[in-house]
């Protein structure tokens, strides 16, 4: 997988709209989270894996930068690019892309591999680590977005 | 149910030096296949759990109605520390980090009823003209209220997790 992954299309639901008449900030998070479901399967970390009940993934950190408003009925896809892979965790970034081509938000996350008997953070199985590393190598040819790792601050 | 954190006229109280929201409970529809609060719904709790802070500043529904200005989030980051389960009850703290002319930076902790911290968040919030959909300077009254709360909270340290980059351990 040498290209950035794109999720299936997702639609903004009426119950996610707030008093500003737009997608509430918290529900961008739902779209980013739903948007990793398909790519997780390609790493062997999808429902087939987690539903066995021994291992799963948890989120350690997640950051959203809000770029444009979304409204009810808008359709978006989430991209997925690996940034780094450790023995027990991976670092990734995403963009929420409107069907008209513009970026509505960016996401940056850390995903942990979890042994559910703890639950505790645990090493990836070799085949999952191999797949993550292979994808990381492919994605390394692509530029890292300039917003990755930027500290949060306000303009004066 | 329309998502409407402003419908809840959340008030806050000072407890152990922290400005805390009312208690919020983890709802069944927020639980995921891991049997715990889904990552995205921590965001819902942080969003609802900032309303006592915004209301105390005077940046709530009344301000939006009277001035045609609203608040929008520019940047939001969560650090997940502990799982939350169905029926758990949490309060949310609210502390201003920095105030600018048209935006402010604040941080929050989601605190379980047993006292431990389940997650932290930091946010940049913008002052927006609702009609023009443009970021605009605060009114003097609002700027003064933000500065006043920031000054009151300055005696407690800014948490060491504010402003950290994301990364994995090797």
Give the topology:
The complex is a heterodimer of chains A (156) and B (170).
Chain A: E1 5-6, E2 10-11, H1 25-34, H2 37-42, H3 47-50, E3 55-66, E4 75-85, E5 89-98, E6 103-115, E7 120-121, H4 126-139
Antiparallel strand pairs in A: 1-4, 2-4, 3-6, 4-5, 5-6, 6-7
Chain B: E1 13-15, E2 18-20, E3 24-25, H1 39-48, H2 51-57, H3 61-67, E4 69-80, E5 89-92, E6 95-99, E7 103-112, E8 117-129, E9 134-135, H4 140-153
Antiparallel strand pairs in B: 1-2, 3-5, 4-8, 5-7, 6-7, 7-8, 8-9
What does this structure look like?
The complex is a heterodimer of chains A (about 160) and B (about 170). Chain A is α+β, with helices and mostly antiparallel strands. Chain A has a single domain, classed as Thiol Ester Dehydrase, Chain A, CATH 3.10.129.10. In chain A, about 20% of the residues lie in helices and about 35% in strands. In chain A, strands 1, 2, 3, 4, 5, 6 and 7 form a seven-stranded antiparallel sheet that branches. The longest helix of chain A is centred in the C-terminal third of the chain and has 14 residues, at about 125-140. The N and C termini of chain A lie far apart (about 40 Å). Chain B has one domain (about 10-155): Hotdog Thioesterase (Thiol Ester Dehydrase, Chain A). Chain B has helices at about 40-50, 50-55, 60-65, 140-155, and strands at about 15, 20, 25, 70-80, 90, 95-100, 105-110, 115-130, 135. The model of chain B has no long low-confidence stretch (mean pLDDT about 90). Strand 3 of chain A pairs antiparallel with strand 4 (about 70-80) of chain B.
């Amino acid at each position: 997988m040498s290209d950035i992954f794109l999720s299936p299309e997702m639609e903004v639901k009426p119950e996610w709209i707030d008093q500003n008449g737009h997608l509430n900030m918290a529900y961008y998070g739902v779209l980013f989270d739903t948007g990793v479901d398909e790519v997780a399967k390609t790493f062997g970390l999808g429902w087939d894996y987690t539903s066995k009940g021994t291992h799963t993934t948890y989120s350690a950190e997640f950051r959203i930068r809000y770029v444009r408003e979304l409204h009810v009925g808008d359709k978006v896809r989430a991209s997925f690019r690996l940034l780094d892979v450790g023995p027990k965790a991976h670092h990734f970034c995403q963009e929420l892309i409107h069907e008209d081509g513009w970026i509505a938000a960016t996401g940056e996350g850390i995903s942990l591999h979890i042994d559910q008997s703890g639950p505790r953070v645990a090493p990836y199985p070799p085949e999952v680590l191999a797949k993550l590393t292979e994808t990381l190598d492919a994605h390394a040819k692509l530029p890292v977005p300039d917003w990755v790792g930027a500290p949060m601050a306000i303009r004066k | 149910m329309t998502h409407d954190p402003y419908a809840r006229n959340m008030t806050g109280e000072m407890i152990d030096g922290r400005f805390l929201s009312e208690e919020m409970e983890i709802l069944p529809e927020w639980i995921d296949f891991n049997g715990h609060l889904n990552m995205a719904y921590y965001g819902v709790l942080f969003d609802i759990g900032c309303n006592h802070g915004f209301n105390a500043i005077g940046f709530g529904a009344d301000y939006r109605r009277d001035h045609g200005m609203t608040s929008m989030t520019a940047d939001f980051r969560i650090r997940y520390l502990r799982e939350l389960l169905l029926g758990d009850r949490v309060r949310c703290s609210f502390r201003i980090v920095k105030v600018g002319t048209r935006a402010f930076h604040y941080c929050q902790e989601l605190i379980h009823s047993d006292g431990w911290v389940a997650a932290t968040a930091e946010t940049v919030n913008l002052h927006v003209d609702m009609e023009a959909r443009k970021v605009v300077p605060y009114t003097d009254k609002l700027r003064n209220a933000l500065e006043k709360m920031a000054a009151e909270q300055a005696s407690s340290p800014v948490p060491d997790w504010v402003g950290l980059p994301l990364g994995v351990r090797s």
